[in-house]
Design brief:
- A seven-stranded mixed sheet has the order 3-5-1-12-9-10-11, with helices on both faces. The chain has a six-stranded mixed sheet with strand order 7-16-15-14-8-31, with helices on both faces.
- Helix content is 28%, strand content 23%.
- The protein has three domains: 178 residues, 2-Layer Sandwich (Aldehyde Oxidoreductase, domain 4); 188 residues, Aldehyde Oxidoreductase, domain 3, CATH 3.90.1170.50; 215 residues, Aldehyde Oxidoreductase, domain 4, CATH 3.30.365.
- The chain is of the alpha+beta class and 796 residues long.
- The longest helix has 30 residues.
- The protein contains 24 helices and 31 strands.
């Protein structure tokens, strides 16, 4: 195997091919467009096999309860019921539950006798000839089950006061010296922000899995981000050889992160496989309640103490949080650390256990972004400064200024000395008319009688670097083959959730090899032995394009070499004397001498593959505990020895929101939105715009619309359906103006970064500053509902 040089490993410096026709081009038809628009696209819910039966689980009607006894005899006698699987079934060997509360336990939640929150799948699964019979049997089963109810707690602060069990050990973390930072400050402020109601993964396609056996081989249709996980479960816990497990990854809808990429879909698929083996019939297991069985990590209370100079320079931030569920290891200060030069910050975080659903990463990162939004905007408000100026003054990374980054980091990493934050802010300010519209808080009433407000936030862009092998259960790899007709096939197994990733991969491969976009295809529904990272824009394209580009370059070189050996028109020529354009191999010195690549492919097999490990081997096994030691822990020219998360993020996003607030009703109208994302390099601008529009809707909805409400007496959810759970429609948000910046300063191939989750998280509390600018009162309890606006206006 070829040993790669350090420069070859620096994938972020790979250049777009000189004659590229498709990278960055608008108007290309998406590879999945025709199937999805015509209705021919096959989703997991569409799978219907001969003799297939259905399975559904019992959902707890209580918030905190245990099954004392369950009589399944009546349900089992119902015509059409084939089997009732109980939690104590001796025939089923359940894998142990992971200790991490971040990920829903694998199979245990479905057959555990203990319900920890309302709607949790517990006790039993009914298998019947049709869905209606499943539902009827579950009603009977509910009547014949005796429960023991326990006290429940929904509020995290109440749980803390009552000494409830903690989900994990408290975190105390400090960067720099916070107390010294407060001494250096001219002013110190304290305030509290609270996310009172959770927003959930209100997806449009509930959980589903289908399994069927052919002898010793099981065939599975998987719903979720990572179709490979079920293979691990069935092979490790049930001794089924992976060669006997076939997993398909059909289309699935509403892939917003969350429950679709945790252990849940793998567990559902494993259950379907076990039931299908027992009943000797195909089984489709359905879990429509999935959409309301998980929520974001941002729920909780955030107590801030911020020190700053009179010129807006922030010297220290101290954060105390009481959060629900388990966050990522970075905790809530990560984006403040990665987006600013603030030299001193500290956090004390606790996670008391409450009887709410599992927390998970969906529209991920809001709890990190919210900290940056409020630190910058509250300091600006106290000083009467333009918040965009405060953001620019504090821009940096790991306590270091952007000037330091320009001198020590960018030259060593091969990046230009562009100022990403300045660029995105300038574009956003001009687009929304910031200089003309920004005004002192509460100072502008419109002719319609409403208050006018405008708000701003800026934070690092979603600049993921490739996942290391230690963080990924299977190698990230890709294969590319040239078919006999000259078409190109990308082999890389992964799920599809609507993010246009296949289109981007095909654009890149077409340009790298020199063939028409129309002749490149991605075979991602089946396992060909190559597994791509599961997620979409943020991590998927950044990680997956490395092996895809590497394999494409190998294929192009193979075509040129074989052309000199097998085609008479190129006898005596060297590969470097040839090139490929529009699918034709041609002689550079004599372009008329050309042959279609199919003439080469007919004579010999052309296939190449690449593994991400070959390009990140030097940083694959670094520990996350080594990340946050600050700039003194590394030398700029030896970044290859540092975990990817420790690399400086040099690109930014900035977003502006204009609102009108009705003083009579408290209603907030979002009238104008400008979003600006520096994505490093835009592979597919149309897809990025789609992510910007969709993310803006989701993020803004979390500010004042999306919320799950609970009955305080019973703990039952009151609006766990798409009628009562408010998501924004087209008329609920005004104009959204999307802008893309390409500085090339990210750590993906060609200097690219991801975009997908950025808006949904970044905009999740931006209405706070906008409403403050409108009415002159801070409303720090989210979501900002009309009653809270009216209460704030009523205060002197």
């Amino acid at each position: 195997m070829k040993v790669l040089t350090l420069e070859e490993k620096r994938w972020w410096l790979w250049q777009v091919p000189e004659k590229a026709k498709y990278i960055g081009k608008r108007g290309l038809p998406r590879k999945d467009a025709r199937d999805k628009a015509s209705g021919r696209a096959l989703y997991c819910r569409d799978i219907c096999l001969p003799g297939m039966v259905y399975a559904k689980s019992l959902n707890s009607p209580f918030t905190h309860a245990k099954i004392k006894s369950m009589d399944t005899s009546r349900a089992e006698k119902l015509p059409g019921v084939l089997y009732v699987l109980r939690w104590d079934d001796p025939e089923i060997k359940w894998p142990p539950a992971p200790t991490s509360s971040m990920r829903p336990r694998l199979l245990a939640p479905y057959l555990s006798p203990m319900a920890e929150f309302y709607g949790m799948a517990v006790g039993a699964i009914v298998v019947a000839e049709d869905e209606e019979t499943c539902d009827e049997a579950l009603k009977i089963l509910m009547e014949d089950t005796e429960w023991e109810e326990y006290p429940f707690i929904l509020d995290w602060e109440e749980a803390l006061e009552k000494g409830a069990e903690e989900m994990m050990a408290p975190v105390n973390w400090e960067f720099g010296n916070v107390e010294e930072g407060f001494k250096q400050a001219d002013r110190v402020i304290e305030f509290t922000v609270r996310k009172s109601e959770e927003d959930t993964w209100a997806g449009v396609e509930g959980g589903v899995a289908v399994a069927a056996w052919q002898g010793d081989r099981v065939e599975i249709w998987h719903y979720g981000h990572g179709p490979f996980g079920v293979k691990t479960i069935l092979s490790q816990f049930y001794g089924i050889p992976e060669s006997n497990i076939i997993v398909h990854a059909p289309y699935h809808g509403a892939l917003f992160g969350g429950i679709t990429w945790l252990g849940y879909p793998d567990a559902l698929a494993a259950i379907a496989a076990l039931l299908a083996r027992k009943l000797k019939r195909p089984v489709k297991i359905l879990d429509d309640y999935t959409c309301f069985r998980g929520a974001e990590w941002q729920l909780g209370t955030y107590k801030f103490k911020v020190g700053f100079k009179n010129d807006g320079t922030i010297t220290a931030v101290k954060l105390e949080t009481v959060l629900v569920g388990q966050p990522l290891p970075e905790h809530s200060l990560v984006k403040l650390l990665k987006s600013t030069k603030i030299p001193n910050m500290a956090i004390h975080a606790v996670w008391p256990k409450v009887n709410r659903p599992h927390r998970m990463c969906y529209r991920h990162g809001s709890q990190h972004c919210n900290v940056v939004v409020y630190v910058i905007n509250r300091v600006a408000a106290e000083l009467g400064m333009d918040p965009t100026e405060v953001a620019l003054k504090n821009d940096g990374w790991h306590g270091q200024s952007m000037e330091w980054i320009n001198e020590h980091i960018k030259p060593a990493e091969g990046f230009p000395k562009r100022d990403s934050l300045k660029e995105v802010i300038e574009i956003g300010k001009k687009a929304i008319g910031w200089d003309e519209k920004w005004h002192p808080p509460g100072a502008k009433r419109l002719p319609n009688g409403k208050y006018h407000g405008i708000g701003f936030m800026a934070v690092e862009q979603w600049a993921w670097v490739p996942f290391t092998v230690g963080n990924f259960p299977r190698p990230i790899s890709a294969g590319i083959k040239v078919n006999k007709d000259g078409s190109i096939e990308i082999l890389g197994w992964r799920s599809d959730g609507g993010t246009a990733f296949s289109t981007a991969y095909c654009q890149v491969v077409a340009d790298e090899i020199g063939v028409p976009y129309e002749s490149v295809f991605h075979s991602h529904f089946e396992d060909h032995g190559f597994v791509l990272w599961q997620m979409g824009g943020s991590a998927g394209v950044v990680s997956n394009l490395i092996p895809i580009i590497a394999a494409a370059r190998k294929v192009k070189q193979m075509i040129l070499e074989y052309a000199t050996q097998l085609l008479g028109s190129f006898n005596g020529k060297k590969p470097e004397e040839l090139d490929i354009e529009d699918g034709f191999v041609f002689e550079k010195a004599n372009p008329e001498n050309k042959v279609h690549i199919s003439e080469v492919a007919r004579r010999i097999t052309i296939f190449a593959s690449a593994d991400l490990y070959d390009y990140i081997e030097a940083i694959a096994n670094r520990k996350s505990s080594e990340v946050y030691k600050g700039p003194a822990s590394f030398q700029p020219r030896t970044f290859e020895l540092i975990e990817p998360y420790a690399r400086p993020n040099l690109i930014r996003q900035a977003h502006f929101v204009e609102v009108e607030v009705d003083p009579e009703t408290g209603k907030i109208d979002v009238t104008n939105v400008v979003v600006v994302n520096d994505v490093g390099r835009a592979i597919n601008p149309d897809a990025i715009n789609g992510q910007q529009y969709g993310g803006a809707y989701m993020g803004l909805a979390r500010n004042h619309m999306e919320a799950i409400y609970y009955d305080p007496l019973t703990g039952v959810r009151l609006n766990d359906n798409l009628l009562g759970y408010c998501v924004p429609l087209m008329n609920d948000i005004g104009k959204i103006d999307c802008h893309i910046v390409e500085t090339g300063m990210a750590y993906g191939p060609y200097g690219m970064a991801g975009c997908s989750e950025a808006l949904g998280a970044a905009l999740s509390m931006v209405l706070g500053p906008a409403v403050y600018n409108a009415i002159g009162k801070w409303i720090d309890d989210f979501p900002i509902t009309p009653d809270k606006v009216l209460e704030a206006l009523s205060k002197a």
